[in-house]
Amino acid sequence: MELLPFTHSAFLIVMSCLVALVAGFTGLSLTRDLSAKPMFQKKAAIALSSVALGGGIWAMHFVAMLGLQLPILFYYDAAITLVSALSAILLVGAALILLHFAERTPKIIMLAGAIVGVGVLVMHYIGMAGLELCRAIYTPLGVIFSSIVAIGLCMLAFWIAYGHRTNRNIVLGTFCFATAVCSVHFLAMAGTAFVAEPDLAEFGPSMSNETLALGVIFFSFVIFGACLWVSVTYLVPPVDQPADAPKPEPDPAPTPPQTLAPVAPQVPCERDGAKVFVRAGDVLFLRADGHYSQVYTESERLFCVWPITEATRRLLPAGFLQTHRSYLVNPGRVARFERSKDKGRCVFDAPDLPPAPVSRTKLRATQDALANQDGATRA
């Protein structure tokens, strides 16, 4: 088996790195500030970001492949080349869905980065499988090393970009993403050899380097245009602070601060298919129920659309106690506190109402808080 010598075009290597950089910046910028946008706009932005990032991975690979110079004529299988692009877009899309529709915990961010790393690898090796009249031969060390680099750098890129959603982190995440994509390609190519193949494969139509170049150039222009579009958003000031807005005149004399009475929140619930708002003072306790909550009053249990995290954010300032990771208790409605070893429970004066558990870590704080409530008795 005779190995073919090969070289790369330095100009196209630089261009491929630039494509990866622009694609990373475009994709990560498209998903900026999505939490404040409507659901349809959020889905559309994630779809566009998937195309930018996944398509950018594909475009970087084939811009670099256009610079591959072999002593024989070779082609690409058009169907396999298309599959490589779609694979990258779908895997990146899955990662973005996790980041924007699931609770964004450190594990989710790392998982999303790992999925994108796998997407880079899948795209590379499927794309290389589309070569015709020549065949790539890999070394185990090259495959393993490039896989570790791909997944590790993509996890780092998403950890930086999504750990804190600031402009600075998006730029740093862009450099990590581009480094991951380029490193995988060139590390894998460094451990790859090529041999000539006498016959064309018959999976899909053959595509010459010239035809591939037209597709890659067109998609690269789309990514560069999208990059210019999202770059404008960094230059435009926020809507609530227009650049030409007159500056407010200073007050002639300071006035004493006015203390406003806190407003008790209303808890949105559903009763017989209709939305009702329950005063926080009428709520005895609230229990987590998956992504939603169950609200218990003296006479009924109601479905609430708030997750426990949202209920905690709104009700703790109103005086509620978190006695358990899944329970919020109104201390003013607790009739009795009972302690048993390293656990406890809050009992209410309502028929058929279950007690609210108190976990071991919340036991001391709950007991101290209830000791100051009228009507509560220390166990």
TrEMBL record:
Keywords: Membrane, Transmembrane, Transmembrane helix. The lineage of its organism: Bacteria, Pseudomonadati, Pseudomonadota, Alphaproteobacteria, Rhodobacterales. PANTHER family: DOMAIN SIGNALLING PROTEIN, PUTATIVE (AFU_ORTHOLOGUE AFUA_5G11310)-RELATED. The chain crosses the membrane at residues 6-30, 51-72, 78-101, 108-131, 137-162, 169-196, 216-237. It holds the Pfam family MHYT. Residues 267-372 form the HTH LytTR-type domain. Residues 8-195 form the MHYT domain. This is MHYT domain-containing protein. Residues 243-265 are annotated as: Disordered.
